[in-house]
Amino acid sequence: MKRTFFVRAIWDDEVNRYYSESDISGLAIETDTLDEFEEVLNDVAAELVFANHISREDIASIPLKDLVPTIVWQRPVERAA
Question: Which positions ≥6 away from 6 have C-beta within 8 Å?
Answer without folding.
Answer: 22, 23, 71, 72, 73
